[in-house]
Amino acid sequence: MARPLQLLFFALIIRPIVLIIIGLNVRRHQELPQKGPAIIVANHNSHLDTVVLMTLLPLKCLKKIRPVAAADYFLKNKLLAWFSREIMRIIPLTRTANGATIEERLAGVFEALNHDDILILFPEGSRGEPEKLTKFKSGVAYIAEKYPNVPVYPVYLHGLGKSLPKGEAILVPFFCDVMIGEKLFWNGSASAFMDKLEVTMTDLASSGGFPSWT
Amino acid sequence: MLPYSQLKQGQDTYAMTSLHPHVQNVLGCIVLLLIIATIVTTVLSKLKGTDKYRELVLRVQTWWILVGVFTVAMMAPTKVAVGFFGFVSFLALKEYFSMIPTRRADRRVIFWAYLSIPLQYYWVADAWYGLFIIFIPVYMFLFIPMRVILIGDTKGYLQAIGTIHWGLMTTVFCISHLAYLLVLPESVNPNGGGVGLVLCVTFLSQFNDVAQYFWGKLFGKHKVVPTVSPNKTYQGLIGGVLTTVTTAYFLGPYLTPLDSYYSAIGGLIIGLFGFIGDVTISALKRDVGLKDSSQLLPGHGGILDRVDSLYFTVPLFFHYLYYLKY
């Protein structure tokens, strides 16, 4: 029942906002996967990040896209929980362990990958300060190790932190630059994988030559 | 569709209107030019390898879309057509704000700057000349520093108010003159109405760009402003201006209330200042270290790259015409 609603929401509201009000400059668009299983890893500055990433893929892929999002934030009330689960189709992730093993906390993620879904992950864990890259959490390495054949696509987003930063309610249009990097695979160790990912991400960030935003 | 003779009544009903016969004929000539350009670029890219002419082919393809969108917008009721130019202003202003360095503190000021677009185009749709002509140069000019001061960040204050207002002047105030041509009294211009005026100045400006490019490619030698735009030569500039003056001499009397002589002077204004507008945006891009303002128009760059000459030519042509005829 929610599926056509999701399609309408993205086709009539999200796409016009993202493509016309904000506007995207995408580099190497053809690098992105058209089918799963795949993991898209991006930096996180704004609520717009997820919908922009979901707009990058054609509408027919929409049903396969699953953003991984913080359970404590996106399930905090009934309405938001319904919207997050049915329209955004998030995979809720508990940010604090509370005695659960990492295997248990990532169960939803593994299930989605088994269904050939395309995951969206923000390893920074929080939107943080606008237009600043922070240290990545290593959960993504854990997933990559378990699924060594699933490609990981690093995507750097610039500009959305200006359009709608954390704590602001009004959207101010700025172009969003989307830099898509070469896909990565599990390379043997968690630290090596995270290093590779972070280097790719900082390279993508600096390749745009964006001035700092203070 | 309503025939042109009923256009005035048609405006109130929000029906699509058919274009003035002169406008139709000129648009037909533009389509003919595009067909020739498509054939030439396709043949060239087939003969000499695709890579060298790829951008030119893309550019011609985008021209088709631009001419199509322009035609549909001009067939719309006047108020909708005015809104269309407001949308062009929005896209150009967004490119501008995304290019220039802004401060976090200016986010809310930029929001107000965007809000000036619907207001400015409301004055246009209402044909409220007095407010149209002073709103951005006076009221927004005073409002922006006031809003910045209330936020209270003084570091970079002058740069913030200067750059924000410059963006409004170029992308909103100057471009809105194009929309105001649509609401000038139709009776003064039986040769093509408001749409005829818009078509005349837009076509001459864009044709001037193309003509300068061709003369420069064919005979270009002596650079005009090598530090800003190394591809601009005196040969291109003079050849382009002469082409534009000649075209204006014939086109002006057909689409506007100006006679051939005054049209040629209008062509001279458009030719010279189209060049200036072009290099001004080049200087801006050079200052911020970008080649194109965005990727919205394949082969051209962004909207700013396409309207760069218009922001000089449109207000100058408008006031030249307004002084002589309205």
List the helices and strands and how they pair.
The complex is a heterodimer of chains A (214) and B (326).
Chain A: H1 2-22, E1 24-27, E2 38-42, H2 48-56, E3 65-70, H3 71-74, H4 78-87, E4 91-93, H5 102-105, H6 107-114, E5 118-121, H7 139-146, E6 152-158, H8 160-163, E7 176-180, H9 190-207
Parallel strand pairs in A: 1-7, 2-5, 2-6, 3-4, 3-5
Antiparallel strand pairs in A: 6-7
Helix pairs in contact in A: 1-2, 7-9
Chain B: H1 7-13, H2 21-48, H3 50-75, H4 78-99, H5 107-125, H6 129-151, H7 157-183, H8 193-219, H9 234-255, H10 260-288, H11 303-307, H12 310-325
Helix pairs in contact in B: 2-3, 4-5, 4-7, 5-6, 5-7, 6-7, 7-8, 7-12, 8-9, 8-10, 8-12, 9-10, 10-12
Index terms:
heterodimer; A: 214 residues; alpha/beta; seven-stranded mixed beta sheet; 9 helices; globular; B: 326 residues; mainly alpha; 77% helix
Descriptive report:
The complex is a heterodimer of chains A (214) and B (326). Chain A has 214 residues and is an alpha/beta fold. Chain A is built from 9 helices and 7 strands; from the N terminus they run αββαβααβααβαβαβα. Chain A has helices spanning 2-22, 48-56, 71-74, 78-87, 102-105, 107-114, 139-146, 160-163, 190-207; strands at 24-27, 38-42, 65-70, 91-93, 118-121, 152-158, 176-180. In chain A, strands 1-7-6-2-5-3-4 form a 7-stranded mixed β-sheet, with helices on both faces. The longest helix of chain A is centred in the N-terminal third of the chain and has 21 residues, at 2-22. The model of chain A has no long low-confidence stretch (mean pLDDT 90). Chain B is built from 12 helices and no strands. Chain B has helices at residues 7-13, 21-48, 50-75, 78-99, 107-125, 129-151, 157-183, 193-219, 234-255, 260-288, 303-307, 310-325. Mean pLDDT of chain B is 91; it is low at 8-13. Chains A and B meet through loops of A and helix 4 and helix 5 of B.
